[in-house]
Give the backbone structure.
Amino acid sequence: MKTIYRLIIKDAIRFINDKPAVILTFIVPLILIIIFGNIFGGSGGPRGRANLILVNESNSIVAKLIEQRLDSSKSLRPVKTYESENGKNTLKFDEETAKEWVRTGRISAAVVMPNDFLADTSTSIKFKFYYDPKNEIESSIIQGNIQQTIFTQIPRMMPLLMQRAAIKEIGNLKGEKFVKNISEIVGESFGVNPDSILRSVTVIDSVALFREAKDSSSQRNFVNNLVKFESEQLVGKKITNPGLTRTVGGWAMMFLLFSLTGAATSMFEEKQEGTLKRILCMPISRSQILWSKYIYSIMLGLVQLLVLFFFSWILFDVSVFSNFGNLMIVMVASAAAAVSFGMAITSVAKTLSQASGFSTLFILVMSALGGSWFPVTLLPDWMQHLSKATITYWSVEAFLQVLWRQADFMAILPNIVVLLLIALLINSYALIRFQKGWI
Amino acid sequence: MLKVNHTVKHFGNLTALDNINLSIEKGEFYGLLGPNGAGKTTLMNIIVGYITPENGNVTIDGEVISVRNLQLRKKLGYVPQDIGLYLELSAETNLKIFGELLELKGKELHKKIDEVLELVQLKDRRKDKVGDFSGGMKRRLNLAASILHDPAIILCDEPTVGVDPQSRNAIFEMLQHLNKLGKTIVYTAHYMEEAERLCSKLAIIDHGKIIAFGTLGELINLLNQKDTVKLQKTSSTTRLLLKLSEIGKIIEQDFYYELIPNQNYDKISKIFAKLEELEVPNNNIEISRATLEDVFLNLTGRSLRD
């Protein structure tokens, strides 16, 4: 028994002294649980609100009410204005600008309450919803929240809309007489003032409308016909495999990070094997060694991505070749940034096992935060800000632009610049450390 | 040919090399002898340009080894202490990779690969993975990879660590062969037997300083100590002590008497003649010669392998 005890102690001591193992066992799962918890479990603060453009062109008090409800939504963040190109003026969105913003990927959805939202004689209210389902979950959340907000207000307007429907069916004079008679009968039967009944079906009671409406599914079903919800998908209508097209970039980036970090940190293996020292004693400079490692890793990453996208095309009909030139640019920039991440790990870590531990930790966290696994918009606000500090975010967004939106070079340029800047900065740092013999 | 000038290197608070000066001539088999941690490998790393000294420099034929003069490294062939080979690749592929990095190509490269594989007796294993080789075979290939480009100076950093006696001998013979061909060899060791067998000149290094240098004979002469005779402690030798004192001074040890001959007995033959006359049995006699170990002990006060 003592022997078993000593052997257990031996394993425990070895584990505690193996920092990468401790990181992988405790820290990685802990961080991932925090991220997942924030998305799916609601722990650690409120989930982030999804942005959508809100254009209210109607003077109706009902439209004003819905706008107010959307403003106070916990899931949506209506955006109503934008800055002009010179940044000097704040402009109000109109329908066309809203559509353009959705079309170009600057925002995922726009809801428009047009001039004829609730015309004097209208028997239904009218919404226009423009969306880009680049993130399926996000689109569903936005649509669901808008509909919920609208439908919970509809019961307040139901009598008015029904009265209008009746008038439309049986004519104005007859209709008014019909409503008046019905009001008197109901008032007499239930001991209620007929005038108040008549007022409630002919005039919009703004006070009542602004009171909290009670949600009821039966009411919602009933009022479905009273709402004209015109939705239009502005982007990705022709995509043959929307599901995979949206996600392939994220997965590609995660595996790219794993493979290229491995390639970059192979320097440690060469150091341990003694081959690095042998090479350094030849007529070869340290910067030549570093650059060769860098270029090789980028090439490896490109081949990996090409194979991945090629099979996505062959097996799942992902449209890879329709925007291939820009896809190649994104691939090169992503590979360059991924290798530089590997170089950064190589620069900081002191041993191969340290490098493996750190890289696994950072790759999984970057993948979770940067949009490889689920849309960034599902994260709390503070995590959404944090995600912009990851290579994954800029790369996944660029892949989405190219594959989903079929965007041109100018659209992906900001992402490319960020990725290449990351690569440049980290590589310069790694080069200095390597030349000084610190790696 | 190879000069180390006023070289200083620190690692944190540790002084790895303290103003080292060395001059190694063409064709010499030069040994750097010292215990583990003495600074031999650091000195070797500076000579091959792997690390840069804080002070001083290394020159080959008057040219300073530096990152600005990478081509000078072609004159050096470095045999590292670690097996600096790709274990997952074949012997031939390893040599091809390193040969190309040494700017050999085409037929010349193939010819050189054949030559070095022949020299290290691995020609018939050229297609085999290095990972499947024995320790001795790896060491031999390690040497082969370092001399592909026919360097003028071969630097061997303890190239026989962990090798069986047979392979060690083979490596010694290869190095002696290369030395006979005119190659200058710098060899670090902490086994005095290796240094005594191979090196024409030696430098003893300890705590980052060269404490003595010269030929083996010159170093032993530093001891001012002659060969001694050890006589096993038996009843017969004990009875003869008085007569034995005619040969020289007798120091009693636990299991033997140490006999330090006087001037009249300056030759081993004279000592043996006297012992024969006194009828001391042959198997009770042992001649003890001064070694590098004694030199090191004398200079540093501690054993070479401490």
Q: What stands out?
A: The radius of gyration of chain B is 24 Å. Chain B touches chain A at residues 48-52, 67, 70-74, 76, 78, 80-87, 98, 101-103, 145-146 (CB under 8 Å). Residues 236 and 280 of chain B are 8 Å apart (CA to CA).
